[in-house]
Amino acid sequence: MRTLTVRRESWPLAGVFRISRGARTAAHTVLVEIRDGGAAGRGECVPYAHYGETVDSVVASIEGLRGAVEAGLGREALAGAMAPGAARNAIDCALWDLEAKRTGRRAWESASEPSPGPVVTAYTLGLDEPGAMREAAARHAHRPLLKVKLDGDRVTERVAAVRAGAPDARLIVDANEGWTVETLRRSLSALAGLGVELVEQPLPADADAALADIERAVPVAADESCHTRADLPTLTGRYDVVNVKLDKTGGLTEALALRDAATAAGFGIMVGCMLATSLAMAPALLVAQGARFVDLDGPLLLAGDREPGLDYHPDGRVAPPSSALWG
User: What is residue 287's predicted lDDT score, i.e. its pLDDT?
Assistant: First the structure.
């Protein structure tokens, strides 16, 4: 007989983390465990206020599906029973993990995916004064890929400071919808000159049609503008890359489908994350195989991670999860 357990968790961050929308000192997550006999599958999600989610609303959504889950709801039926988002992500990933624990087959085998290997993940530098960002970049200059959080103020100055602190690192920047069209036009050439390889979601999702008329010296990625496959038709001509996040897609099932559909449509792939533990990153590592950009550094920004966690190497690589963690 199946049982469903839902738990709220809070994970302190290693420091204050700032983006264009504000600052955070903790990651608030929801853990789902589905137990069937001696096997238990787990999934973790991050409710995101920008998408109208709270911890309470996500827990309530999961609880609303308790009867169906405990009666044997599968992943395909889940997609029709719950909208994409954090709640569905936690259940979907728990179902993948449960299947792996019950069958002894790793999740990638069940998904008909190749055996995963290590990938290089970005490390994110929060928004700060240029001098502080240069110091942070210098502390992490050994990492091969840095992601720089920005708002619409002093864009080039901040990125130049990061470049000075980490002259050899690859750079991507993320505005979290914080730029205007004028900021974007003014910044792209300068960012290209500083070696920036990607600009993530520069304009608000409801104002990104302007991207179709802007010559892009640096590729632009859709984050807030791309949740599921249904969003892809409107992104053509506006974006070069899509950022696949399980908390947006509603789980691994749709994330794999979105990755494949976006690739077929000619988009580059980025795989990203919210601030969360290794349990939330583990299924995303399956999606990240072969991705052009990977940003699965959530646990590195926490004061402490779940045990067992993922194995993050000093050279930026992160290894696939052990079966004890997930899948």
Answer: 98
Q: Domain limits at 192?
A: 119-318
pLDDT confidence of residue 1? 87
Candidates 101, 147, 245, 248; catalytic one: 245
Residue 248 among the catalytic residues: no
Q: Write out the two tokens for 260.
A: 């494949």
Q: Which of 101, 147, 149, 248 is catalytic?
A: 149
CA distances from 119 to 88, 203, 273, 289, 315 (A): 26, 29, 14, 7, 10
Q: Is the pLDDT of residue 20 over 80?
A: no
Q: What is the pTM of this model?
A: 0.96
Name the pairing type of β-strands 241-244 and 268-271.
parallel
Residues 83 and 168 occupy one common structural domain? no
Within a domain: residue 173? yes
Q: Per-residue pLDDT for 23 more than 90?
A: no
Q: Is residue 326 part of a domain?
A: no
- 50 by Cβ neighbours in 10 Å (0-12 / 13-18 / 19+) ranks as exposed
